[in-house]
Amino acid sequence: MGEGRRGTLKSLIFFFLVLFLCCFHVNGHPNYKDALSKAILFFQGQRSGKLPPNQQLTWRSNSGLDDGSAAHVDLRGGYYDAGDNVKFNFPMAYTTTMLSWSTLEYGGRMGPELGNARAAIRWATDYLIKCATATPGKLYVGVGDPNADHKCWERPEDMDTVRSVYSVSAGNPGSDVAGETAAALAAASMVFRKVDPAYSKLLLKTSKKVMQFALQYRGAYSDSLGSAVCPFYCSYSGYKDELVWGAAWLLRATNEGSYFNLLKSLGGIDGTDIFSWDDKFAGASVLLSRRALLNKDNSYDQYKQQAEEFMCRILPNSPSSSTQYTKGGLMYKLSQSNLQYVTSITFLLSTYAKYMMSTSHTFMCGNTLVTPTTLRKLSKSQVDYILGENPMKMSYMVGYGPDFPKRIHHRGSSLPSLAKHPQNIRCDGGFQPFFYSPNPNPNILIGAIVGGPDQNDFYRDDRTDYSHSEPATYINAALVGPLAYLAGSY
């Protein structure tokens, strides 16, 4: 090879190496803007219903177009919760609340992703409105028999399992799923207040009605629906936290004193060291503490105190810490899908730090001083770990970084697309040769954050290991806020 051609080749290799590194690191930090974009794009891969012309993840196609027909209503749309083909409204509504909260707190830092975040929220809220208004006296809370679905490995586009429709009502209450739905609609109403006032009013009006239903007919949806939601998304923490959460969001959306009175009537917020689709107390305390810190309203001081007690249970150097960390520095709460707790708690760390910063507030955990920087450093360390700064040197966000999970537990991602394989794949047709295949998934579900590594910082990239390799909407939704904050900071 001539010197000129060899030099050109070296230049090209150097160029692509620089380009490659720039994609994932900016000034020594992970490329948070790229991660933010991908974290939001992920939701397109979870869409149910008729896909729009601007769908970017083109290996997905229309699905669930008859959803609701079993009850003679239109329940098309919404999201599949994780790697399956079921629409569970309880985690979907939480996902919507967290996407909305992320957008309310950090929308100014999202840049061109703000419109995409709104589109992700609206895909859920259009569906949740239908669920709340289709039949008077009923709230639809899910589509698809999870027990039948979990026996199959098929694309959402091919679903031949029964699309059962589940609802709660006066006789079969579901205060938890109704309270969370009210929270989601109230939070989203603020996201659309300036850009689509008519839609915002519809969201708020629907939220109030659903909250009234949650309060009037009290009971856990797990008791009403049994095996249709358990053990998948049982309401383990009861429904009081969702009533508090719904009231807190309606208070923020309306500023009506009746919601503060409702909060007082519901009693105190229970102490906890978790925040998730099931347990909302910590989220409610941070949300309500905003009024104590930003509005200097001492009638909310109890919530500020609760929020700070929560932070003291999370911080590793706090005398009251009840949170484990791996040797690599990852917060470790539970063995199944641990990253869902990491992303949700990281959101609260970021957001409470934001409220503290605006008022130069600090607090103590025993003799340890906690500043906004204390919380932000811990939050950033968790985001960085997820994006590849960990012992495995692996990103737990699919499609981000040079090494990421290739064999995720996700039907649509692991099966060939309709374009590549137009023939129908029936219920059990996907297990061989696809589910048990050692090959990487043919479709990259860009932005999906998986359940994550074990307590020893080890990740086995194995499709059959769903507790570590399955992505979920609620894992992603909670990380959008911290990513947007960091994207605007670095």
Automatic annotation (TrEMBL):
Residues 32-482 form the Glycoside hydrolase family domain. Keywords: Carbohydrate metabolism, Cellulose degradation, Glycosidase, Hydrolase, Polysaccharide degradation, Signal. It comes from the Eukaryota. Residues 1-28 form the signal peptide. GO terms for biological process: cellulose catabolic process. Gene3D superfamilies: 1.50.10.10. The active site is at H409, D461, E470. Its EC number is 3.2.1.4. The keyword Zinc-finger does not apply. It is an enzyme of class 3 (hydrolase). PROSITE patterns: GH9_2 (PS00592), GH9_3 (PS00698). It catalyses: Endohydrolysis of (1->4)-beta-D-glucosidic linkages in cellulose, lichenin and cereal beta-D-glucans. One of its GO terms (molecular function) is cellulase activity. InterPro entries: 6-hairpin_glycosidase_sf, 6hp_glycosidase-like_sf, Glyco_hydro_9, Glyco_hydro_9_Asp/Glu_AS, Glyco_hydro_9_His_AS. Belongs to the glycosyl hydrolase 9 (cellulase E) family. This is Endoglucanase. It comes from Aquilegia coerulea.
